[in-house]
Every structure is written in C-alpha cells, then in structure tokens.
Write a structure and sequence with these properties.
The structure is a single chain. With about 325 residues, this protein is of the alpha/beta class. It folds into two domains: about 180 residues, Isopropylmalate Dehydrogenase; about 140 residues, Isopropylmalate Dehydrogenase, CATH 3.40.718.10. Helix content is about 40%, strand content about 15%. The chain has twelve helices and twelve strands. Helix 1 packs across helix 2 and helix 3 crosses helix 5.
Length: about 325
C-alpha cells in the first residue's frame, strides 16, 4: 500500500538535481521514489554537495542514505551548473512525459516535479507553456492549479493571463468546471467529505453591489447559487482584501482566486519556502516545487530543499488517500 512516486529533477543545469540528492539522504517510509532523469547530472550534483548517491535499478530497494532508484533519461549533451542548454530540452520533456505515462499505466501512483526552464525548452523547439499544461494534455483532462502551504490552499480560476484578459475569461461555464474540479479533488485526494471553498470576487470589494463591476452579479452569484443547490459548500464571492484574514481562513478548506496575483502573493508571503504547486484534475496526484531553476545557485549547495521535501510528503499523502478511496 506504500505509494510509488516518480521524481523528476527538471532543468538539469538548475538546482533540481541537487535538491533530489538532498531528498534521498534519509530513507522514507511514506513512499518509494523512482527518479526520471540523467544519471551523470545526478552524480555531478551529489559530488558538488559531497553527499552520497547510489543510483539503483528500478526493481531494487532503496534503504541506505543516498539510494535512488532511477529510470535513465539521458541528456543530449553534458549539463553544466548554471548554464542551461536548449539541446537538453527534449530530455526534460521526455522525463516529465515518462513519469506521467507511468502513472497513467498504473505502475506509479504520483509525480513530484522539480523546476523547469520554460524559455530554454521553447528555445529547444518544443512549444511549452508549463508542466501543468503538458501533463493535462497527455492525460486528456482539464486541470486546475492549486498552491498550498501549511497555512492556506489557493486554487486559481485563471493562471497565466494578461490582466486585461482576465475578466473575459471568467465565464459561468469555465468557472463551473474549475469549482467542480476543485471540489472533487478536495473530496478524493484530501479526504474532505464536505469541503468549504471560499470564492473570491473579481473586482475590488467583490463588485460592491455592481458599483465596481458586474461580474459578481451577472456571472458569479447565479453560478454559486446553482452549485450550492447541487450540494457544494461555497462561501462568497468575497472581497479579496479581507478573505485572507486568519480568522476567516479558519473557516475555509481552500480559497479560489480569480487570477494569479490575486491569491498567490498572500500564499507566498505566508510561507514561500514550504509552498507546493498541486495539479488538480489529473488521474493521479502531481505536486511540484513552487520555485524556479535558480541557475545562479546551482552546484553551490545553497538551495533550500524545503519545497521539494514538502512536495514529496504531500504527494505521498495524496497518493495514499487515493488508494483508500479507490
């Protein structure tokens, strides 16, 4: 019953490989890890940190500090710390898709991903907007991005859109899909029988009865009433400037923000180092670190592994919960 998770380091020239080396210095009882990546890159990261690393076959048992089972995904060229190379873009994508496919096939139970470099992947000739979108396309599903730490969970109705496009993207049909996806994931993966979802308004003061915008009156309130009639526990639409007060957060299981910078600054201020990025709606749990490749820190032993540690622990819990509910 112990979940088996894919571990994908991400950009080979960034901090992802060394974070993975740090992760496996202690044996785990909550999951078994199988890395998808370049063996030489992982060895170089371990050497830079002066930490043990023993790369094992997939069917081996990791029991000692530094043991890591590996499915090799070789880079096209040798990676150098801090110098991302577009020629390795295919290896990065192949590792992500290989991990996703292993979950779709049922051989693995979840995916933990390190940071990738979007610009370098695109320079390598691969149209790429993000790992969330990549894995959603592979699985043929629509997904929702959620970021979480020990203080708050924030799901996003829209993600990487210019601000002037957000209002047009808040439609009843689209918002219904997002809310039902979030509700289902909270029930299935987090084990919440009746999750309490706080929905933020789009406009200041949640529109102030139409004086500051009509999206709340015309789109959001009618939809929320419909979903409440279907049995969902939805609070809002709420003014975003007061919804994150600690006394109010105690009454919510998650907050649904209408756009990226409405919710994420609060989450990152409250605990950036422990924050994780969760993809809701996939047929398996996927949890990522909530930071970038940090090329300037790569190979120096200065990168904080807290987010990867938190992502792995959370993915293990979500995968274990799915095993219970399946």
């Amino acid at each position: 019953m112990i979940p088996q998770l894919a571990l994908v380091p991400g950009e080979p020239s960034g901090i992802g490989p060394e974070l993975c080396v740090r992760l496996v210095q202690q044996p785990r009882s909550d999951c078994r890890l199988l890395a998808f990546g370049d063996p030489e890159t992982l060895k170089a990261a371990a050497a830079a940190l002066a930490l043990p690393l023993q790369l094992l076959p997939e069917d081996a048992h990791a029991s000692a500090p530094g043991d890591l089972r590996l499915r090799p995904v070789p880079n096209a060229v040798s990676s150098q710390f801090g110098q991302a190379d577009k020629r390795n873009a295919n290896a990065v994508i192949d590792a992500l898709l290989g991990a996703g496919q292993a979950c779709l096939d049922g051989s693995l139970d979840g995916v933990v991903t390190g940071p990738v470099h979007k610009a370098v992947i695109n320079e390598g000739g691969i149209p790429y907007s993000g790992t969330t979108e990549l894995l959603a396309q592979q699985a043929g599903v629509e997904v929702v991005m959620m970021l979480a730490n020990d203080i708050v969970r924030v799901a996003l109705a829209t993600t990487h859109l210019p601000l002037r496009e957000v209002a047009d993207a808040i439609t009843a049909a689209g918002l219904r899909k997002v809310i039902t996806t979030v509700h289902a994931a909270l029930c299935r993966d987090f084990g919440l029988a009746q999750p309490r979802i706080a929905v933020l308004g789009l406009n200041p003061h949640a529109g102030e009865d139409g004086h500051l915008g009509r999206e709340e009156l015309d789109v959001m309130i009618p939809l929320l009433e419909q979903l409440r009639a279907e049995g969902m526990n939805l609070i809002g639409p709420l003014p975003a400037d007061t919804a994150f007060l600690p006394a109010k957060l105690a009454g919510f299981d998650t907050v649904l923000a209408m756009y990226h910078d409405q919710g994420l600054p609060v989450l990152k201020y409250s605990g950036f180092e422990q924050a994780t990025n969760i993809t809701l709606g996939l047929p398996y749990p996927r949890v990522a670190v909530d930071h970038g490749t940090a090329l300037d820190l790569a190979g120096k032993g200065l990168a904080d592994p807290s987010s990867l540690f938190a992502a792995t622990a959370l993915c293990a819990r979500l995968a274990a919960q799915r095993k219970i509910t399946q």
